[in-house]
């Protein structure tokens, strides 16, 4: 689902001879790096052809607790679950229920985008490849950090989200259209996305521990707990802390990345990908033609320049297929996807020409470990010399964070905190954004509070910053603070409220900048 910006810098590969097993010292290497960085727990699965050559856990499920991660421990896997949603659609394509290029409104007549022409032209394929014209992460606050909306209500909000570019003119990653794809599965099959994926993918594959929803995940005591770094100047810097676990995977967003999977179960998913949809015993989940369609590039992604120490990871081409990234590395094709969920990171990588696939899951947000070991395994299976990738990514992360922290604005001197323009009680009221819904500002003479009423637990104080701008101080310290600016009309009443994230490292899912709140009732 989320792709933290510095994490989304790269992921590629290479090619040469196939090594038949993981590196002989790989497990010791994983444990040494995990301990050094401070990642609480990891799970890794490697599949070579029809053989699972590694499915193992490392570390603990939770800081300051003894239960260890094993091959059946569940990890939230974020946006790597988009491939499951496209596989569910592929099953319906194989059965003749839908076609990849069917119009969405042919199956969901109520579906609407902001532009009526786009509504009429949007296909099922368009839902999956990030070329709709929506901006990066547009609408993510419909599920970030949590939500009380239904999936259908979230998709219905699409009609109010203004595009950033024209339809099919470029690439911008989104989650909400995968929520629409999940709703389409329900409209066509009569089963919810959760039930369809469980019945048609997880159960036939024997993925007995994996879950499509929070209730099932919480019933399993063998699950990893989420962690992040808090206490520094920005989220992601400071002391590693366990996040409060209260359903971080909002139910409405599950088709975009709400699966929880173990190493043993992930190995079964990797096998079916390598086998073109077939499972041992002759049963087929989806056709080889459907697998090939899902791996076929559709949209070109921009390529960000890599720093010198990571230059070898820069691809010649970088594309998005149906729920998968597809790119090259020194002549080798790689099919992969990263996933991020509050306190978890995952990557799933397939090397088609070597018939090898692997996944790496961690219960923290230390992306240098995910990226580092991804490249370490790629080097091994593609016959390249070791690149010390975990160390290189750790050094790069440290440098980038230092640069960002150095660029943060200095705190305003007390004399510069001009304003606010109105007595605090004049800011109190309800404000509505067309796609998000309502926020409520309460309080009065001495302080103000803000409540994002559609997002349970997203509430806190408003601290005056300057003029008519305040900063959110959420009760949950893991949430990204926002600048909240009240704009006044000529008569001194509040005309609108806008926001933007305080941290330059804030994940794009905190799309505060897309919000435009107006007073819900008569202006105060």
Helix content range = 25-40%
Q: Mean pLDDT across all residues, rounded?
A: 93
CATH architecture label of the domain at 7-80 and 214-279 and 300-405 = 3-Layer(aba) Sandwich
How would you characterize the largest beta sheet?
Answer: 8 strands, antiparallel
CATH topology of the domain at 7-80 and 214-279 and 300-405: Beta-lactamase
Task: Report the principal-axis shape.
Answer: globular
Provide the β-strand percentage band.
15-25%
Distance between the termini: 39 Å
Spatial strand arrangement across the major sheet:
2-1-12-11-10-9-8-7
CATH superfamily of the domain at 7-80 and 214-279 and 300-405: DD-peptidase/beta-lactamase superfamily
Using DSSP, what is the number of strands? 20
Low-confidence stretches: 2-19
Keywords, please?
524 residues, alpha+beta, Beta-lactamase, Lipocalin, eight-stranded antiparallel β-sheet, 20 strands
Explain what the structure shows.
With 524 residues, the protein is of the alpha+beta class. The protein has helices spanning 26-37, 82-94, 116-121, 124-128, 151-156, 176-189, 193-205, 214-219, 254-257, 263-274, 288-294, 367-381, 389-407; strands at residues 41-48, 51-59, 75-76, 227-231, 238-242, 260-261, 299-300, 318-320, 325-329, 332-341, 344-351, 356-362, 429-433, 437-443, 448-452, 459-466, 469-474, 482-488, 494-501, 518-519. Strand 13 and strand 14 (437-443) form a beta hairpin.
Describe, in short, the structure shown.
The chain is 25% helix and 22% strand. The chain is α+β, with helices and mostly antiparallel strands and 524 residues long.
